[in-house]
Structure formats: C-alpha cells, structure tokens
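Example record for the data management plan.
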Amino acid sequence: MTTGRKKGEPMAKRTRNAAGLRTLCIDIGGTGLKAMVVSPRGRPLSERMRVDTPHPATHETLRQALLTIVPESRSYDRVSVGFPGVVAHGVIRTAPNLDSSLAGFDLEGNIRRVHGKPARALNDAGVQGYGAIRGKGVEACITLGTGLGFSLFVDGRYVPNIELGQHPFRKGKTYEDELGKKAFERLGKRKWNKRLAKAIEQIERMFNYDVLYIGGGNAANITIDLPRNVKRVDNISGLLGGVRLWTQG
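Corresponding structural encoding:
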C-alpha cells in the first residue's frame, strides 16, 4: 500500500491535510457487514453500524446492504475496506466465504466510484492486524469467524496475499475447515479449543512470530490458556486498523 493518491482517485472534497482526514472503515465479513467513521488517531467518530451479510453475497447485494449502514458522505473523507479473501492492488482474487463471482472484482475502484472518495482495500485479517500490531519484529494475526483469516507483518510492514485458512492443517482438512464457524458448531467448544491450540503450535513453527494476535467473532469462545506471546484483540480493531492503510508505506 502506498500513501500517495492513486491515479484516478478523487481528491477529498475538504481541503484538510492528511493528518486531519476522517476514514470510513468498512469490514466485510461472511456473517456481518460493519461500518464506522474513525478519526486520524484511530478513535471512533460514529457508532459501529452492522447488518447481516446478504446471501448470495454478490457485489450488487453487498453494495445494497452497505448503503443501509454507511453514513452520509460529508462525515468522512476517505474509505478503507477489509475483505475476507485475497485482495491484490485493490482487486479481489478470492472470496471463499462469499459469492465466487466476486473473484476479479475491482473492489477499490468500485468503492471510489460509489462514494466519490479515495479508497483502499485489503484482506480483513490484514486490517485487523494493522489495528493490533506494535510495529516491531514479526507479528501475525488470525481471525476466527465464518472462516479463518491470517496476516503477517515484519517491522510493521504487511506481507501480502498469504491465505493460510485454505492450507492443509490436519487429516486432509484446512485450517478453515477445522477452525471456522461450521467447525465450531460441529465440534463444540471443548474440541474446537483443542484444535485451536494445535493450530497455534503449528503457526508458531511456520512463522516464528514474536507476537500472535487473535481476533474475530469466535475469539470470545477461547477457553484454553494462551502462550504469553499470543494475545486476544477486540473486534473493533478490524475497523480501527483501516486508518493505517493510509499511513503505512
């Protein structure tokens, strides 16, 4: 992500400097869509609005649903979007828990056109990670929700396009198969937590992180004792992290 304005991006209507820009942060999830306006310091300036994710979750049904929770345009200057899949240069590559028609969709470009404001889009676990990291060493983030999201940072810089949720975990099943929402409902809390403990062990061996952050709706169901370098984070970081899409080079 670059901090400069992209070619074709509209300038914010207000002539305020970058340090004073208000960000509309949107989190697209497999279960819910959330939106909130955030200050340059990452403080909420509006209520956190939520609506259920429509099914099928095509770009048109998502657009219509988001219109019901997005505030009036004069209340923000730019837009950040977290999406549950690989997003490369603003374009969706994968949407494992939404409609397959979203693959290849220019999410950033569409948001700019619809809102008339500069826009940035990133994997939702990346945005959540931006809201949690300290910017030192190797830091990772997993999100436990409808699926399983993952992001990796080195000295505060995002490593793009790592889709850990779709990688093999155990007995031919992926991390998402074993730790997503359906797995939680199938296994129950105790067995699901045992799988999570095993996953944390494997993820640490793979990435040798300094800190692992865990967010997402099912983080509230964690009952195991976490290692000292594993920390739960509030779901609001998935929105507050949207500000950092504009400050990290």
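Summary line stored alongside the record: Confidence is low (pLDDT under 50) at residues 1-15.
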